[in-house]
Amino acid sequence: MAMCVEDGISSFPDHILFHILSFLPIKEAVRTSIISTKWRYLFASISTIKFDGYLMRGLTDRNVDSFKNFVDRLLKFPDQVSLDCFRLNDIVSWNDKDHNFDVSGWICAALCRGVKEIDLDLKNLGDTLPALLFTCHSLVTLKLDAVGSEIKVPSDVCLGNLKTLQLRNSVLFGDSIHRLISNCHVLEDLAFIECGFDNISEVNIQSPSLKRLVLEFDVTEGRYFNFVVVINAPNLVYFQYHAAVAKSYILSTMKSLEKADISIYQFDSIDCETSATHLIQGICNVWSLSLTIDEVIFRTSRLPIFHNLIEFKYLGVGFNGRETWLVEFLHCVPNLKTLTLNFPDDAGTRWKALRMKVPSCLSFHLKEIEISYFDTHMIEMVSYFLDNAMVLEKLIISMAALTWRQKCEAQNKLLQLLKRSKKSLIVILYYCFILWLELISVWFGFV
């Protein structure tokens, strides 16, 4: 007599089964329809729908048409539950005159089902984006990667519940940026990545609710930066700016700012020093700063004192005098506790020649230093910090870029410095992909 195996999962309430199916790829979710009559149409009520281009690999024209019809039925089937997430990735690349996918209709169907998150990664959208996308009150997250597309923001835009907006590889016109942001009344996370701005003199970002802002533009396109950047976001917590220096910056006081990641590059067509200085002055309340510059774009004498800064990561790429500039900048950060240096070339250093006043942060507060891309030219830099960082507790050095012979040579030189220093210090040497706490620390009586 055959044993009857009880199906415990099928006894779960439908809303739990919908939630379980939402974690499965759409193909696997559809396959559950053969389990039993109860499961036959459950997949049609899942709250997360994701379609990626890989679903169509190897399909014949007939199968592509079947896929199109399946998506139409799935999204437009009556009496369906609201959607938590709708994602389209690289579907338009399959769209041609033989198939004519109704991408705009799919997006509208998701919007009509009260979708909370829309993630579109599509190329050459043209007029695919429906105006309804910019007036949907259910949307909480909108991510749009639209290579080669122009984003047309309607005059009646209103996204009253949108908290996250990310636009990538898009082109925006005129005052559409300000119109879009000003009508997102609870916006918290905003990102423009590799976007272009045409017929515009000002990038105006004003949002009292904004907490995270990312502006990341292609530095090879200098024409994109002949505009003024205006930011009025008093509750901003994180700010990232990776781009060429803009024509000018007008930044309101960012009293809530905690972390900033700034990578700036200069073009000769504008007064880079004045403009870059205004940018750095605007973030003076930050407590964690990552700064990348390829030239001495601004003088430290024009900078404010960063009283709150306790973490600083500095990447100075291939310009003369970066060591002097760094020591001068350390005078602007009297309470610094952690310093990370990333010099990815072997241009050499001039630390022995420094006869400058020692920054107060080295004397009283700096406890941890990390040096990435270390090579033998940087021994003098290590010596400088060992001599002047009086409360230093940890030194992390990455030698991953060195040959084995160079690593041995560098280690021997470091041994001599540590022996001379006699500081109570943890030394971590990063050789490959593993952090090793060297036994030399014990030999010299260090912690």
UniProtKB/TrEMBL annotation:
Designated name of the protein: F-box domain-containing protein
Gene3D superfamilies: 1.20.1280.50, Ribonuclease Inhibitor
UniProt keyword annotation of Membrane present: yes
InterPro entries: F-box-like_dom_sf, F-box_AtFBL13-like, F-box_dom, FBD, FBL13/AtMIF1-like, LRR_At1g61320_AtMIF1, LRR_dom_sf
Domain of life of the organism encoding this protein: Eukaryota
Organism: Gossypium barbadense
F-box domain sequence ranges: 6-54
Lineage, uppermost ranks: Eukaryota, Viridiplantae, Streptophyta, Embryophyta, Tracheophyta
Keywords: Membrane, Transmembrane, Transmembrane helix
Membrane spanning stretches: 425-446
